[in-house]
Every structure is written in structure tokens, then in C-alpha cells.
Amino acid sequence: MLAFYRRLAAESKIPLLLYNIPQFTKVITEPATVAALAREGTIAGIKDSSRDFEYFENVCVATRDLPRFRIFTGSDSMLLASLVMGGAGTICGAANIAPTWVVRIYEDFTHGNWEAARKHQDALVELVMAVRAGAFPAAVKAAVHLLGICEPWPAPPVAAYDDASTARLRERLERWGLLSALRD
To answer: Which of 92, 136, 151, 166 is the most exposed place for a label (fewest CB within 10 A)?
Structure first.
């Protein structure tokens, strides 16, 4: 892992963000390795999409003395908890559907409004559970299509959401007020 990222950094004109998503890559970059790469300036940050909060915490602990190193969660459902542990924010799927929902959690956190932050995190978790149905990212693509952003089909081999699933998703997005801005 060290040699791989060092080689990438040597050839890159921009700072690197390590992407930890072992459920797809079958590779875990250990927190000590992340810290070593960060200390030598090989990586500027990490996006951790493992959904393993213990891993996330260990990366935070291992890099806590590096104030410029940025740790992002890729798991929408871990946003508030990750901020509490020292994370910089999130790079997540739900931000494509409800960016203001994600931003308000960050703002609640930075203003110390814990009650609102928990309430808004709970709402985001409900949205995330709605778009985790089926094969990823079919529901996210269907949602952003309903928002008028892109076409509804994901890259093969993932199939697009069927009409019944899309109708159920539309109903939820309307109930949450996420589609009303399109009519205004």
C-alpha cells in the first residue's frame, strides 16, 4: 500500500485523497499506513466508505496530530458521529439528493446545536435507508433523475429502478419536500 500511494503521489500534480472502500476493493488500508502516508505528505486526506466506525476512529486517533489532514466519511449515516470524532465532513450519496440536509447537520454541529443535529441526522438516515434498497446505486440514480439532474440508469451490470420502486421513491421524496422545489 505504501509503495502504491507513493508512486501515485510522485506522478500526481494534485494532492491525493485515499479512498477506503474495502467492500468493493477487498483491500483495507490500515490506520497506521494511512498515518504514515499522511505524515510524509503522500496523501492529504481520506474518504472512508467502509461503514466501520471503529476503523474511522482509529484513523482519527492515528492522525490527530496532523491538523491539515482531512478525514471524510463516505457513509451518510455516520456524518454526525464522524464530526464528533474529528472528521472534516462527508462525501456521500445523499448529498446528491438532499444537499441542504447534509449541510444543516454540519452547521448544527459547528454551532453546537446537538438536538437539531441529532434530529437532522435521523432524517438523513431515513433518506439513506430509502436509497439503499436494491443494488447500489440504482435508487440514488432514480432519485437524482426525479430531481431532474440526470438520466435514471446506472452503469451495467446494475439495472435501473423499475416503475413500482421509482413510484415508491417519488412518494417518499415528495413527502420529505425534496421534490417540491422543482415545482416552485
So the answer is: 151
